[in-house]
Amino acid sequence: MNNKKRKILFLEQYAKLTGGQRVLLTLVEDLKSDYDICVLIPEEGIFSENLKRLKIKYTTFPIGYYSLGRKTFLDILSYSLRLPYLVYKLKRLIRSESVDLVYANAARTFIWSTIACHITKTPLIWHVHSIFDKGIVRALCIFFAKRGIVKKIIVVSKAVKKPLKGLVEKIEILYNAIDTTVYFPPNKANAEPLIAMVGALMEWKGIDDFIRAAKTVSSKYPGAKFTIVGDVLYDKEGQKYKEQLRKLVDKLNLNNNLLFTGYREDIAQIMREVDIFILASRRPDPCPTSLLQAMASGAAVIATNFGGPAEIIDDGKDGLLYTAGDHNVLAEKILFLLDNPQARIDISRKACQKIRDDFNQVFYLRKVRTVIEAGLEI
Asked: Structure pTM?
């Protein structure tokens, strides 16, 4: 009897940890007892340190640098020139390692993994954490997603699914989920309210809106504390934005009220200290895990009113929504929650219950396993 484990190769585009990478870590940890797992990452970093901790095998694979957000002509050109090399390297890896299934967890891996898997006849699953709403990137993704070797496409929200026309039969919506044994409400409240953002420091995340709202709120609640947890994903373009944020804090005289923590591993502990959590994204956020973590941890959440958050939050019941880019309205929402502590408590309790009922990690992992098992049987 052959008891050899089936081999799954996971592809990831970032060396640091943000929402999509944390989802992948949870998934490979769950699968490692039943499958031979290997993760392909661009370079050593925080992500590889976590893989080592979990005793997950990985290999580095220089996929190249591309700007975050909207892609420039130079990004497309650079990607196109590197494409043959990436296909060749992945094809060799699949064959040398006798890979049974490839799981592409990152948009920047979709095209070359599809070509390599087509050549090697290896079934491929896409896990889409991005919204391809327009442009050449969307057109290319749809074209390659239609290839027969792409067996299933997991999308993290309806907002992600909507632009992917003609792929209904392949698509399965699986919202991100949270381990409620790790993320749960605290036993006591803070003496002074703590309002926080958690995530990568990127311009489209609206962090400057959060800072401007903090100025308005601190005028009425001088004891309120504001925290920005996270760091840049790429030093090349992120450090300039990070410096702009620090200068804005200086300009608004918020240094005594607002703290930049940088990257932190103890997110669960931090979330239990947060009273109000803000997601200020100026573009639709697909399905932010930080929002789910905050809701599970007993924070009252305020988020922009499109993308995944608008699908997750029932406005006025288990969270508040506002129009992206309007820091004045954001400040009003924060002040409402501070002025009405009972409303804040009611919203946070309903949010916490929603996560336990509808975004439970146990059920999520079962569903992903079902997708993987189907891909291996094809």
From this structure: 0.94
Distance of CA 194 to the CA centre of its chain: 23
pLDDT tens digits for 145-164? 999 999 999 999 999 999 99
pLDDT at 248: 98
Residue-wise pLDDT tens digits, 239-262: 899 999 999 999 999 999 999 999
Contacts 24+ apart (CB under 8 A), 93-96: 93/9, 93/40, 93/59, 93/61, 94/9, 94/120, 94/122, 95/120
List all residues 6 or more positions away from 280 whose beta carbon is below 8 Å from its beta carbon: 197, 205, 206, 207, 209, 210, 303, 304, 324, 330
Domains with residue ranges and CATH for the chain: 7-177+360-377 (3.40.50.2000), 194-358 (3.40.50.2000)
- Which class for 242: exposed (0-12), middle (13-18), buried (19 or more C-beta within 10 A)? middle
